[in-house]
Amino acid sequence: MGSPFNGHFALGYDQQKKKYISSWIDSLSSSMMTSEGAYDESTKTLTLTGESPSCMDGSIKKHTVAHVIKDKDTSVMTMSMPGPDGKPQTAMEITYKRKK
C-alpha cells in the first residue's frame, strides 16, 4: 500500500487450554490480533483462529492463520478473512526463511 510494513508475531503453548496462543501486531493496524488453535503433525500445519478489528473499517472479522512448515529452514504463514461474498480471502502471506 505504498508504505513500509513491519509486523511482530508471538506464539506460545497454553498448558491449561492445551492450545497454541498467538498475538500479531503490525504497522497497518492499531489493534493486536490474538488467535488460538492446534498443530497437525500429519500436515505440519499450525492452524489458529480468532476475531480482530479490520484494518480497513474497524469492523470485527473472523480470521484464520495457517503456518505450514515446508522444511527445516522454511515456513509459510497465510492469514485469511471472509471476503465480501463470505468466502475465505487471503489477506497476507509471509514466507519465513532461517538466516544462515
Concise synopsis of the structure shown:
The chain is an all-beta fold and 100 residues long. The protein is 0% helix and 64% strand.
Spatial ordering of strands, largest sheet: 1-2-3-4-5-6-7
Cα Rg: 14 Å
**Mean of pLDDT:** 89
Stretches with pLDDT under 50, minimum 5 residues: none
Number of strands: 7
Number of domains: 1
Order of helices and strands: EEEEEEE
Query: For the terminal residues, how far apart are their CA atoms?
Result: 30 Å
Strand content: over 45%
Looking at the structure, what is the overall shape? globular
Mind summarizing the main beta sheet?
A: 7 strands, antiparallel
Fraction in helix? under 10%
Give the class from helix and strand content and strand pairing: mainly beta
Question: Can you characterise this structure?
Answer:
By secondary structure, the chain is mostly beta strands. The protein has one domain (7-59, 69-97). It contains no helices and seven strands. It has strands at residues 7-14, 19-26, 33-40, 45-53, 60-71, 74-82, 88-97. Strands 1-2-3-4-5-6-7 form a seven-stranded antiparallel sheet, with no helix packed on it. The relative contact order is 0.15. The model has no long low-confidence stretch (mean pLDDT 89).
Give descriptors for this structure:
100 residues, globular, mainly beta, seven-stranded antiparallel beta sheet, 0% helix
What does the secondary structure layout of this molecule look like, with pairings?
Elements: E1 7-14, E2 19-26, E3 33-40, E4 45-53, E5 60-71, E6 74-82, E7 88-97
Antiparallel strand pairs: 1-2, 2-3, 3-4, 4-5, 5-6, 6-7
